[in-house]
Amino acid sequence: MIELKEHITPNGEVLLYQGQPDLKLLDALALGEGDIWHSSLDQGFKNIFPEIIYQTVVFFWYAKDFDNLEKSVSWRINPNAFVIRKHVWETFGGFDLDYESIQPSALDFGFNALRYQGVIPLYVKGLFDETIEAINISIKDIYTFYIKNFRLSQSLYMLLRRGIWKFKELNSFRYAKNNFHYKNKSIVLKPRKLHAIQGTPKVSYIIPTMMRQEFTLNLLNDLENQTYKPFEVIVVDATPEESRDASLYNTNKYSFNVIFKWQTTKGSCRARNEAIDLCTGDYIVFGDDDIRIQPQFIENHLRFLQTYNAEACNGLDIRADHQQQDLSDLDKKLEAIGESRWKVGATQSFSNANSCVSSRVVSLLVGNDINYDGGYGEDSDFGLSITKLGVTVLHNPFSVNLHLKPPMGGIVFGGNKQE
Prior knowledge:
Elements: E1 5-8, E2 14-18, H1 23-29, E3 36-38, E4 71-73, E5 82-85, H2 86-92, H3 102-115, E6 121-124, H4 139-149, H5 152-162, H6 167-179, E7 203-209, H7 213-224, E8 232-237, E9 257-262, H8 268-278, E10 283-287, E11 291-293, H9 297-308, E12 312-319, H10 327-337, E13 354-358, H11 359-365, H12 378-387, E14 393-403, E15 412-413, E16 416-417
Parallel strand pairs: 3-6, 7-8, 7-10, 8-9, 12-14
Antiparallel strand pairs: 1-2, 2-5, 3-5, 4-6, 10-13, 11-14, 12-13, 15-16
Helix pairs in contact: 4-6, 5-6
Domain Glycosyltransferase 2-like: 204-311
InterPro entries: Glyco_trans_2-like, Glycosyltransf_2, Nucleotide-diphossugar_trans
GO molecular function: glycosyltransferase activity
């Protein structure tokens, strides 16, 4: 059993800790998005447990730790120097002590908390001193971690890669397989109660489109019905001149500022960048042209980011069964999802169909990478680029869209990406 010390912040948050953290810095961190804090990357834990590559490397943003950041998402917790919100520790019952060493127990806790359970573990430079820890993770503990957290086939793959002919490897695999099983990961940290919006932040909403004027008009109507309306909406439309109906776009129909720009360049990344150049708001919401959004959509993005004191989030994207579905269908789908919807945490993907980012952060990135025009992956690149700045991109289950996915138009035309 691990005995943790207790610290109460000026705003009444109860934190548990091991080691000697900078309590003044900790008080400030507790006001932000994090749930766990450590300085492990300066204590010998950076990229420890490289065996994670045998499970995933491409799709899990946090497989490798980020370089040269003061703060970043990292699940590699030093068990001798970390801080955690008390209710988070109690929700998950602390470390799994089935391991031979406490170090893999902490790694197990951090990994599951980040990947599956909606918890945000953060590396923070200077929270603890930089004393290097001696790290010893046995082969048995490596296979125990795999058996507990991944499919059996992934443990077998690791065994083959590390050497099935090696006695210690094979014996450790058999030991873990015979003594442990896949852990239940259904317990998820509940989201925080959202605060009311502070101030009057201005929101810019970006819609790139092509050959989907009717869908774009439906989205504009949803924006008109928002409980917190956008300050401005920028529509960049690449519909060819011979196929467009300019009369459908009427700026006088809306209570917010709206700019309709006919795109002369090619590509969805260029379209978003052209729109970004026209934005003057405090936040930018990125949306596809083929979505429907609930009236609280923008309000909940702002409330969410302010509650977590964060600058970027990715909303919940729900796929429609067909393109004629509407918000009543979205309500039914959310009801069917039930409680499993309510998970926050650091996002592990990013979607330009539904995301909200502070203008400060967007300006640092200088927009979308136009090298992705004509292909796919610009969403993930944009979200990962934000994360590499040291900005935590959160998953926001409160702002939901219904994604209609019609077969033609948008950034897809004639079966190909717009290029």
